[in-house]
């Protein structure tokens, strides 16, 4: 339920004609008929499920509304009865099995490998359960998710398919031992999330579900790292610090997040920095198998780690590897909106000096911005920094306790830097960072990550191969 890819159906017409670089994946009309038949049967389906499995009947109530939903009560029920439905990996495997058994044609609408989807759904379940007593947070997250899911053609009927499959999965996993009350609590939770997604989808009707883009420039700056520029057919508004999910035609239905590496440009071009994380994934397709003229699709902009509420403070940017994309966009933005006297520090981590792949843009920024101090931190090989790691370098180079910090890069570097900054006196609500799955939150747990919600984002790149 979290990242775009794991909601039950992606049956949008636009996705039914994706071309696969020479491998036409046009779907036959029979599959389209099946889809429309599914839409037409949406109400009948629920009735049928109740008739076929009366003991596990899906409660026929309206989706809970924000005010009416007693999430805390459902949270208690769910938490007290986790044993029968955990590990979630098993529950989720049953869920997709049940879904594809009932609706085999849905399988082809998902990426070949389901691992990524399953991992995201697991994180989403935990996120929902952990935040059920704060429904407003779930609503915020799901509203954005619903906006994003428009690119997949998700329709309300798909949430019902998902619900039925969840119900079936709980039954299979527990051997029918899940208490009816507990099952209903789960379904209410999922329905509440779905209501937020439907609202988010409706709210976004004025924008396209996805933007079509053409690659205008593709530079391999390292053997495994490309800087790619894309022009969208329709204007693509975003804020520096945000990111977009991208789908390559080489891997239909597989979307991965990449940060915009510049401020919005007058010519409307977008720039992304992508390092190949392994064979066969989106990063592989984008770095080694994408050429100028190729088309891509982009989801709507996401993320809240922008300069919008930076409180006018001095800025500390900590970036590692292609996390530099985030740092660069934020610094460019700062240079455009900077108030006199305001200063910025950049700690830029790279494994080797050759891995400082965007040196020209960096020196342009340095020349233009006398208020910017740059500390490159090379970790390996000749020229390695005496500071050792990025986190150590921060500790040695001054007092940043009054700054606002933005941290972006490999999960381990982000974790080390965030904890080091907290140790140096920077309060959690002034440390913005990429979400890191499994990272122990700072004490106040008030830091803003992007996106709001479970840890989905660039960290996931490593799992895409
Ligand atoms: N492409 C994009 O738009 C964005 C990517 N990211 C994330 O940034 C990361 C960049 O990865 P690469 O370029 O391959 O970085 P990399 O492996 O080249 O490392 C960059 C820096 O991080 C440090 N580092 C790496 N592993 C570390 C560890 N275990 N502990 C402490 N420090 C460590 C390195 O010493 C170096 O200073 C990826 O995880 C990606 O998901 C984040 C934001 C935007």
From TrEMBL:
Catalytic reaction(s) noted: 2 nitric oxide + NADPH + 2 O2 = 2 nitrate + NADP(+) + H(+); 2 nitric oxide + NADH + 2 O2 = 2 nitrate + NAD(+) + H(+)
FAD-binding FR-type domain mapped to chain residues: 208-308
Residue ranges of domain Globin in the record: 69-202
Ranges of Basic and acidic residues composition bias in the record: 7-16
One family name in Pfam for this protein: Globin
Gene3D superfamilies linked to this entry: Globins (1.10.490.10), Nucleotide-binding domain of ferredoxin-NADP reductase (FNR) module (3.40.50.80), Translation factors (2.40.30.10)
Enzyme Commission identifier(s): 1.14.12.17
Top-level EC class: oxidoreductase
Regions crossing the membrane: none
The protein's required cofactors: FAD; heme b
Keywords: 2Fe-2S, Iron, Iron-sulfur, Metal-binding, NAD, NADP
Domain of life of the source: Bacteria
Chain spans, region Disordered: 1-31, 441-465
PANTHER family recorded: NADH OXIDOREDUCTASE HCR, PROTEIN RFBI
Family that this chain belongs to: In the C-terminal section; belongs to the flavoprotein pyridine nucleotide cytochrome reductase family.
Name the UniProt record assigns to this protein: nitric oxide dioxygenase
Lineage, uppermost ranks: Bacteria, Bacillati, Actinomycetota, Actinomycetes, Kitasatosporales
